[in-house]
Amino acid sequence: GFDSDNSSGDFSEANHKVPEMLDLDPHQSNRTGKHNGQTEIQENGIKRHRTSLPAPMFSRSDFSVWSILKKCIGLELSKITMPIVFNEPLSFLQRITEYMEHIYLINKACSHADPLERMQAVAAFAVSAVASQWERTGKPFNPLLGETYELTREDLGFRFISEQVSHHPPISAFYSEGLNKDFIFHGSIYPKLKFWGKSIEAEPRGTITLELLKHNEAYTWTNPTCCVHNVIIGKLWLEQYGVVEIVNHSTGDKCVLNFKPCGLFGKELHRVEGYIQDKHRKKLCVIYGKWTECLWCTDPTTYETYKKSEKRGGEQKKKSVSEEDIKSENDEADDMPEVQDTVQFIPGSKLLWRINCRPPNSSQMYNFTSFAVSLNELEKGMEAILAPTDCRLRPDIRNMENGNMDVASKEKERLEEKQRAARKERAKDEVEWHTRWFHQGTNPYTGTPDWLYSGGYFDRNFSDCPDIY
């Protein structure tokens, strides 16, 4: 994200006029008929979460990211305030929680007796964790120092807690556990931002750890790099690229996933290819697919045979491509690449994961998934049990979600000013900031620095929580 309490007032979102709202299809309005928390109960007793936001998103067509960034060349991106119209009504802590959208893959991993099948499920979970970012070009709100977010989903079998443990550099720590005590999922994320002129690159530093308690196994990995293109002109689009290594610290098995950059003609856009090997480096299976669509696995011999056959066919196809075709593709390469095909299925492959369908009105709700739509829902009676630092209670996010953009902008400025004043007061009194639910330590599996859950959040003793809102 870009927002910061150190930013200049020259780039304040209050100085920008908010454009008109988009119209939602009335047939796709909130199915529950209730906003901000009055959740209906289904016949089977499971809560039915909302299917729509209280208000549609605002058009960004009258705004240019470049109009802001060109004034900030040479500055740290973490210290630039963007107009609130470029945000989405979620905190980054809530965005992290979207890792849990495909939690059924963790449940699959827990249920498998074969370590290879467990690794396949974990690999699919690691890929699914970034799938919600597809077409999500709005930036989440930067969490305030001390901000928290909790989510308990009895229907999905987990509870989740996160805290913003550092503001500069921005570090978010999270911890989740299965309600059946079958897994623990935790980590910390420190997004490193780079501005390349036409694109913004976000490298999500930090270790992700998944522990399968029944099997006494622990897996660690880091997320791929995310890049947002066309920040100067054109339609914003993003890609994920980089090598992700998932290590099973109990068996020595490793999964290597290559998130491929789109390439000159965009033919590799969204593609993921990799393999699982044992501790002796013997390839056990090959994984392929797209992080925006699905993931398959097959045995190495079948995969190599298919690739050789595909290459022979490709060479013949290349001869029929004219110079005009190549020039045309090259001219379009700087624009948003279009996805021309789906994943080519290799006979005998096993499906590991497929992306969930988004709500039909998703494009008018910041391209949220159904899971994301429910994250900022404030159910009746929830305020009484939430920590006072929970994201759902942030007035700027709440007002943006409700369509009150002017109020949201003013509230965001007020919160940032309050954070600045609190930091100055601590510096004056030489008082250090102390995190509430996490502490600095060492990852027990990688030996690298990490933020570890201190415990006690769900005892709900919030008497010493900071006043950040």
TrEMBL record:
GO function terms (MF aspect): cholesterol binding
Keyword Transport: yes
Highest taxon of the lineage: Eukaryota
Disordered: annotated segments: 1-38, 307-336
Polar residues composition bias: residue spans: 29-38
GO terms classed as biological process: lipid transport
Membership in a protein family: Belongs to the OSBP family.
Name of the protein this chain belongs to: Oxysterol-binding protein
Species assigned in the record: Dasyornis broadbenti (rufous bristle-bird)
Lineage of source species: Eukaryota, Metazoa, Chordata, Craniata, Vertebrata
